[in-house]
Amino acid sequence: MPQRASNKVKVYVRTRPTNHFASEVLAIGRDNKTVNLHRAPSQNIIDNKVNDWIFHFDGVFNNVNQEDIFNAVAKDVIHQTLDGYNGTIMCYGQTGAGKTHTMTGFSESYQNRGIIPRSLQYLYQEIATRQEFSYSIRIAYLEIYNDQMCDLLRTLNSQSDYQQQQQQLSIGEDSGLVYVKGLSYRLANSEEEALNLLFEGETNRAIGQHVLNKQSSRSHCIFTILIERRSAVSSTEKYTMSKLNLVDLAGSERLAKTNSEGVTKREATFINKSLSFLEQAVLNLSDKKPNSHNCRSSKLTHALKDSIGGRCNTVMIANIWPELQQLEETISTLRFASRMMCVPAEPTVNEVIDPIKAIENYKRENKLLRDELALHDSMVQRTNAAHESLSEQQLYEIENQCRRFIDGTLDDIEVKSLRQIQAVFNTMRNICRITEKDAEKKCRERYAPADNQGYDQQSGHKISGITRGANNANGLGGDLDGQNFASGVSSKDQRGAKDGSLKTARNKKQNSTTAKPPVAQANNTKAKSPSPPGVKPTGLNAPRITTTDEEQLKETSEALDGKDQRPNTPPGRSAAFEEFKQTRGSNLNRIYVENKEITATKKKQFAEFARRINQTKAELDQTRSRAEQKKNERLSMGEFLNENGETIIDEEEYELISKLQDLKGTYRTDYEQWKSLKSEITYCQNLVAQCQNRLLQEFDIWYNETYVNENNTGDVGDLASPSKIKSDYLVLDDAAERFERMQKELLLTDLDSMPFRQAQMKTNRRHVFDAATAQGPWRQAPAATVTSANRTSYFELNYDDEQESLPSIFTNGNQQKSMVR
Ligand SMILES: Nc1ncnc2c1ncn2[C@@H]1O[C@H](COP(=O)(O)OP(=O)(O)OP(=O)(O)O)[C@@H](O)[C@H]1O
């Protein structure tokens, strides 16, 4: 088969492993690129339908593991996103065909992780090797469920949260780039942080019930990784910004086949509708009619508008379920997949210009040119040439010269630089305007005296504008009306007006603070004092109430109002902690104390069980050796058999054997209870530690809010440190911490999997804690919430019927110890 042109979307097919592979209707070509389908024609009626198909793809994967899929399908796309190309990898197929497995994989199993976690690992590993660039990664996780969008990286506690969020999210476009307004794009500085976000999003994902697949997800999910790449070696203003979309589409399905009802039927209708819009979009794209179809028909097509073909590196994985019952869905998936192969793709790098950086670079360039000019001036001996911005004094001089030039008292205006020439022109223009206004004013005075007041004010503004305009632009033009300036020479009238308005403001303040005359009046006197002699009265130098004055006024009024009741020195942290536990932290502290008590009770029971088990074990050993002894005695006397050939034993030996059986039974029951207590204790200890941390965190926030941030100048150096308090609350024998330490040591043997496991543990811990705080004090350890990671830490004791495998238990007070076989 000829090689396919590379400027098209790449399409691969992956089969779900099955014991009932329909080899009579479906065959995969030897080149692993073709799928042959044959449907048996109908027997009873004349069948004109097409019953044979050959589909060609970029690859067909049958019984291929997750790693090989990632290497073959995703690696290149990810690699290119690091160079600034957009990328999209999407899974399409019927419900249960393995889309989620391919895209996310099992979050509990490192080996079976899917494309998303592998992409994150590859990204961060690759970034670490690229020293010449600095990367910043942001992550967003969007779910589209029943054509409504949901931000999976935000915690939604209720239905109303969910609805509120849907209203906040909307799709926007900016120069052809599609983005979701209101969606959180969270910074992820490491693989572990990125995986944390993935796992967090996963738990929020809506899972619907379905007859075909109970775990089937009923929503489209788009995991977006935004990659910003800047040069670490040069200060160029150009950088690249690429977007990688990892899309897990909801399963396509036939309503009739799945017997959907109610909510599930509604979900299925939405899914089918959005997928058919997607098909329509793909059809138009493959026919090169991108504008003929309105992508806004559904949220899915709108969100993916810039992510299928075009400038984006696009790969689609068509997941099929190669069983006879799924033939119709397989045909429809493969048809869609082969349509997708026709969508053109011309990936291009997304280069962006950083305006701030660009300005910095222009400034640098400008300085360089000035230096060169200075060098040139010195070489041609133009020593008094000025290329710098003109000072206020120089502008004043120019204005003076211009006026004298106009009056005829000066023959030439001396100019040495281009800036001076421009300043002269600007000044001339301003003088012209003022003269014009003056003439107008005089006319008005003569013919319309009533207008005087308003005209004066206007004129005042314009006069101040002369110098201001020149000041502002240093002779290069600017705000000639002088409306936006705070400094400059103000006219007499204007100054008067300002003073007047200030007085009014001051009087108002005075009236409002009549209850506290001493300080307020002192401040007023200060504010009214004239400018120091010799200083040009500019807008900046005009008298005003200073910040210090205002602060003093505020302080006095607060003191008089008696608002500030707080002591000057904050209490010690230990004392404050006690106060916190009684007030804001009381609920948390109560949960903490209750959990501790429950843990202590469990530990007591645990020790009691251990004692009983050991007692039973000792008795069991004793009974067993007596029974052995009896048996040997019997054998030494020769065996007695009854008519059926069965061994006859005496009553004492019979008693011993029965006792042995009973003791074994007791041992097992106690042992079971002891084991479950052990996991309950670990769980409780985790909760206690989490409550403790939460309590301390809340306390720190409260302490800072209450004492430290209140500008309290008390000496805090001698206060008890947070660590001191923490040490008071240290939980001895923290099994959870020990477990995590063990887990980390274990992980050192496979360093690559470390971020995945860490993120997994963090997510699990968060879930346990959230569940615990939501429920209040812990009562009974729910088996379902004990995480799989924790489960692996328990010693897997297989105590079968062999007496030798029954372990003894060593205990030391309330502390649990490992078992010795
Ligand atoms: N390649 C595979 N290897 C092992 N198990 C697989 C594979 N593909 C699918 N499965 C299993 O098949 C089941 C359904 O897969 P999955 O949930 O990924 O389907 P789906 O296409 O995402 O379904 P839906 O559209 O309903 O979300 C899961 O239990 C999954 O573990």
Verbal overview:
It is a single chain. With 821 residues, the protein is of the alpha/beta class. It has 4 domains: 10-353, Kinesin, CATH 3.40.850.10; 356-473, no CATH class; 504-561, no CATH class; 576-805, no CATH class. Helices cover 50% and strands 11% of the residues. The protein is built from 23 helices and 15 strands. Strand 2 (26-28) and strand 3 (34-38) form a beta hairpin. Helix 1 (66-81) crosses helix 3. The longest helix is centred in the C-terminal third of the chain and has 56 residues, at 651-706. The chain is extended and about 150 Å long. The model is unreliable at 206-216, 449-567, 710-733, 775-805 and 810-821 (pLDDT under 50). Adenosine-5'-triphosphate is lined by residues 16-17, 93, 95-101, 213, 215-217, 250-251, 319. Residues 16-17, 93, 95-101, 213, 215-217, 250-251, 319 line the site of adenosine-5'-triphosphate. This is Kinesin-like protein. Residues 448-576 are annotated as: Disordered.
Task: Please outline the helices and strands.
Elements lengths: L9 E6 L10 E3 L5 E5 L13 E5 L2 E3 L4 H16 L5 E7 L5 H5 L11 H15 L3 E13 L2 E4 L7 H10 L1 E5 L2 E5 L4 E2 L3 H14 L15 E12 L6 E11 L6 H4 L3 H25 L12 H5 L9 E8 L6 H14 L10 E3 L1 H25 L12 H16 L10 H30 L4 H22 L18 H21 L4 H12 L18 H15 L11 H10 L3 H51 L14 H56 L15 H7 L6 H13 L6 H22 L12 H4 L30
Parallel strand pairs: 1-5, 1-14, 6-13, 6-14
Antiparallel strand pairs: 2-3, 3-4, 7-8, 7-11, 7-12, 9-10, 12-13, 13-15
The structure holds adenosine-5'-triphosphate.
The site of adenosine-5'-triphosphate has 17 residues, from helix 2.
